[in-house]
What we know:
Blueprint: E1 9-14, E2 17-22, H1 33-46, E3 54-59, H2 70-74, H3 85-89, H4 94-103, E4 108-112, E5 115-117, H5 119-126, E6 129-133, E7 137-139, H6 142-145, H7 153-170, E8 176-177, H8 178-184, E9 189-191, H9 193-208, H10 212-225, H11 230-245, H12 248-259
Parallel strand pairs: 2-3, 3-4, 4-6, 5-7, 6-9
Antiparallel strand pairs: 1-2, 7-8
Helix pairs in contact: 1-4, 4-5, 10-11
Amino acid sequence: MSYAGVPGLRATLDGPVLRLTLDRADRRNAVNDVMLDAMVTAIAASNTDERVRVIALDAAGPDFCAGTDLIANAARSDRKPRVGSTQRRLPHKANRLIAVMTETQVPIVAVVRGWSTGLGFHLALAADFCVAATDARFWEPFMARGFTPDSGATWLLPRLIGLARSRRLLMLGEEISGATAAEWGIIHAAHPDDELSEAAEELVARLAQAPTVALGLTKWLLQTGNGLDRDRQLHNEAMALELAFRSDDFKEGLAAFRDRREARFRGR
């Protein structure tokens, strides 16, 4: 299995880390359909590629992502689309990207500098961990443009910060810094820009060395548990525990405990 980049997106396998880099700085890394489809393909493939233990998502240039490239999408055809084209298209495009990010059992780390707006904001939200520069800017631009939120905004934000703060971001269009995003619990942590790369790599390395099976199952439990009743979630926890017990990493964890040493997990 190989990971091929496309114009605007670099994809490389670096040991156990799949690195996806938005590389369209001249457009502030606004995501077009080619980039979006490539991200969906790469993240979906990583879920069954046992070499991959963590995904690192970052961007070239001063900004993380200015959202969806509306101009490029509008230029797809010189004919006016049929009524309902957006409703038909989104499940296979931006919505699918958010879904595959939350569905894959591979942990995802997003690294944000500069502006992160619209879909760019939602990539940070859908990642399992987002580390950002303290002066990064997060913004939901929908009200300023006269349309409604998309790509999971109204599902992701309330789960993280509740309705009151979600209204401030989505309905009033307030901008927040990386430092405020960390304070609100939207992202994992904020760091001064000159410390961000080192902090991000430490987190990526920590996840790459973790017990991969247990880590992925825990991600699955956290993503699905919010919509389930207590008994169903307890059932899922029991099933996940049964699978984790069968992993080599579990055996290594027990051996390390017995031998009073650090565990050396291999992701198996």
